[in-house]
Amino acid sequence: MINFQYTRATDVADAVRQIAADPAAKFIAGGTNLIDLMKEDVERPSRLIDISQLPLNTVEETADGGLRIGALVPNSDLAYHPLIAQRYPMLASAILAGASAQLRNMASTGGNLLQRTRCYYFYDTATPCNKREPGSGCSAIAGLNRMHAILGASEACIATHPSDMCVALAALDAKVHVDGPAGAHAIALPDFHRLPENTPQRDTNLEPNEIVTAVELPARGFATNYTYLKIRDRLSYAFALVSVAAALELEGDTIKEARLALGGVAHKPWRDPSVEAALRGQSAGQSTFTRAADLLLHDAKGFEHNAFKIGLAPRHHPRTDPGGDRHPAVTVQ
Ligand SMILES: Cc1cc2nc3c(=O)[nH]c(=O)nc-3n(C[C@H](O)[C@H](O)[C@H](O)COP(=O)(O)OP(=O)(O)OC[C@H]3O[C@@H](n4cnc5c(N)ncnc54)[C@H](O)[C@@H]3O)c2cc1C
Ligand code: SF4
Questions:
Q1: Cα(121) to centroid of ligand 2, in Å?
Q2: How far is the CA of 100 from the centre of ligand 2 (A)?
Q3: By C-alpha distance, which of 155, 193, 181 is closest to 269?
Q4: What are the residue boundaries of the structural domains of the chain, listed by start?
Q5: What is the mean pLDDT of the chain?
Q6: How much is the average pLDDT of 230-250?
């Protein structure tokens, strides 16, 4: 039996005060990840600070034409929100590719950003794991590593970030708004999650005494040519082996702007702006996309059970249908 206290935050300032006063405390939102981790004895918070009643559950338009999504907006509400469906359909697709309807009803936007890896050894307290217990070793490197990273891994950890939503948010250039004892500030989504390096116990650049209050989307939503494609071991209710969020703005067949982010391949959504820059001005076709995929996967390194991902990821080719519906824009060959 693990003893812990339970308190409810009355507003954001109170939530920040409570977490700053108790470094071993954790916020709880939908509880779909944290409670599982507590049941497995992976997380042992001294106190659960319930933030589920805070007024962070709205989607609002911003002055510059974007949207501000409260951290407590449930994944289902977000995916089906009319402004998301119309203006950011790639985000809706990514969210709906994740988990199950029941889980999406409970899961919050902030909790989705902060969900932890699905590495089997992270959940198994009988095995060494540097993320769970720094310095104990990584069981996955020489163990079962089918789900693991092919990009950005380190000798300390080869885990992947499991979120679908975050892959689309990375492609869309979202920002994460946070609040804490040092005040409110924003972190660009690509800088929010970290690579494991030698501190795999830290998943993100959020400080332990900070709270996520919102996610902001810029005006550009890539609603015409986009897709989110997820390859997994089952058709639903499974985490990505490889996923891709791909979006294009075209002038005729020429690429004006491109976004490519991969999921299931690294400790964070994998995006390389230099690859997107190389796509600008090119003709939207097979050879261009093949070159971009090669560049994106250039430094990929596989392990015993996951080397297949290096071949799988580039085969998520963008495709445009001449004269027809231009999305979904990606197929697997
Ligand atoms: C069986 C199963 C299958 C799943 N499949 C998928 C899938 O295919 N794709 C996918 O993307 N996800 C999947 N998920 C994960 C699911 O999306 C996450 O569990 C969910 O998004 C977490 O949100 P939550 O509100 O329940 O977070 P919680 O469990 O409440 O919290 C998770 C973490 O976030 C912290 N936290 C929560 N809110 C805040 C905040 N506002 N500020 C700071 N810290 C915060 C908590 O302290 C905790 O550490 C699956 C989950 C399960 C159980
Ligand atoms: S890959 Fe990371 S999470 Fe998995 S066992 Fe190794 S250190 Fe732990």
A1: 6
A2: 25
A3: 193
A4: 5-53, 225-320
A5: 94
A6: 93
- The span from the CA of 297 to the CA of 313, in Å, is 8
Asked if CATH classification 3.40.50.720 holds for the domain at 5-53, the reply, yes or no, is no
Written as six digits, the tokens of 282 are 């090119």
- Residue from 44, 103, 201 whose mutation best tests the ligand 1 pocket (most atoms within 8 A of CB): 103
Whether the full predicted model's pTM is greater than 0.85, yes or no, is yes
pLDDT above 90 coverage of the chain, percent: 91
Residue 61: which of 81, 39, 38 has the closest Cα? 81
CATH of 225-320, one of 3.30.43.10, 3.30.420.10, 3.30.390.50, 2.60.120.10: 3.30.390.50
Q: What is the pLDDT of residues 284-328, one digit of tens each?
A: 999 999 999 999 999 999 999 999 999 887 776 554 443 333 344
State the distance from the centre of ligand 1 to the C-alpha of 251, rounded, in angstroms.
39
More confident residue, 44 or 323: 44
Which of 177, 171, 42 minimizes the C-alpha distance to 110?
177
